């Protein structure tokens, strides 16, 4: 999706994916540092240790936006992050991009996610 939004070539391997993220100035970071879960989905999370995203953002003052991938995750983490970081950082509530969100087309996801690239 990021390749489509930025009109870049679709990466075909891990190295190309990392290069695309670097070119777009995008950092991907999971909310959890480690997690115990009953199955392979977020609904199976029993407990987890969160990453220090607030600390990371404060150490990297050029970060101005955080995109939360999934409405449920926003409700769980995004509102808290927005309150901790204040208004200088915009935390976006965006639709889930995984295959589990089959009701959303790629075009519809791209339209929603394009706000991340707006100035």
List keywords for this structure.
Uracil-DNA Glycosylase, subunit E, alpha+beta, 4 strands, two-stranded antiparallel sheet, single chain, 119 residues, two-stranded parallel ribbon
Describe the structure.
With 119 residues, the chain is of the alpha+beta class. It has one domain: Uracil-DNA glycosylase-like domain (Uracil-DNA Glycosylase, subunit E, 3-Layer(aba) Sandwich), CATH 3.40.470. Helix content is 39%, strand content 18%. The chain is built from five helices and four strands; from the N terminus they run ααββαβαβα. The chain has helices at residues 2-6, 14-24, 53-59, 71-85, 106-113; strands at 32-37, 45-50, 65-69, 90-94. It has a two-stranded antiparallel ribbon with strand order 1-2. A two-stranded parallel sheet has the order 3-4. α4 (71-85) links the parallel β3 (65-69) and β4 (90-94). The longest helix has 15 residues, at 71-85. It is globular, with a radius of gyration of 15 Å. The mean pLDDT is 86.
